[in-house]
Amino acid sequence: MSLTTILALMFSSMLIYATPLIFTSIGGTFSERGGIVNVGLEGIMVMGAFSGVVFNLEFADAFGNATPWLAIFIGGVVGVIFSLIHAVATINFRADHVISGTVMNLLAPSLAVFLIKVLYNKGQTDNITRSFGKFNFPLLSDIPFIGQIFFRNTSLIGYIAILIAFVAWFVLYKTRFGLRLRSVGEHPQAADTLGINVYLMRYLGVMISGFLGGVGGAVYAQSISVNFAATTILGPGFIALAAMIFGKWNPIGAMLASLFFGLSQSLAVIGGQLPLLSSIPTVYLQIAPYVLTVIVLAVFFGQAVAPKADGVNYIKSK
Description:
Layout: H1 3-33, H2 41-63, H3 67-92, H4 97-120, H5 146-150, H6 156-174, H7 176-186, H8 188-193, H9 198-225, H10 236-246, H11 251-270, H12 282-300
Helix pairs in contact: 1-6, 1-9, 1-10, 1-11, 2-3, 2-4, 2-9, 2-10, 3-4, 3-9, 6-7, 6-11, 7-9, 10-11, 10-12, 11-12
């Protein structure tokens, strides 16, 4: 196997596994920049994956190749609806953010599996027939060496996720909305005195995280698992949370961290095809992403500075 082939295989696989993490970690960044800790990203991804696969199965014949793209939008909308549970609990009822997110993570798989049994009378769905597949960029894929690695047989939705990371950075740091969202995550009392609706901004932050988390789940289900079962989403939501922290609550940092974790996940799949990793037992490669997650959190969590009011319930009267 040539060096070009090895690099092309690694990059393509990394992008596939990193894409759901990029969407979800950026969503978590918006929520926590607004002051709401969202450990329920895993549950949001579950609901996005469930709704995306169901939509894909039911409407594949009607929409053809556009089905996966419409399905990720549906997954995002369902993610928004599900995230409102967390928003109401933490913003209106001032529940503990971690407990509320944990409840979402426990609720989502049970609810999704129950609905699958109601709809299909079995524990998992059939495999989808319309997925994202591979994409060749016109002209760019013909560039020697670079084109074969980065632009041939690659993931289009992965490049869109990377683009969205830069758009999210611009929104957070260069727009009035982003300034207001960050202000309620740093000092909500001061933001309130300036006329900013703290509750509304926090709701919007959680809803954005719900949409992007739902999109991440739908992308995962339609590009990696290609069906939905109780075990479809097991861990990526927490890895996305780690990527957000590793990226220091910055969309671009979260994207880069997601690419790192995506590479570690992809090596568990393609490691047997790579000369340097083929001799390593598969089980070690499979546990590597989770070990890296623990190590990253242990090493960088103390160094990463979260928004000052992140996880702090705001009472307007005070």
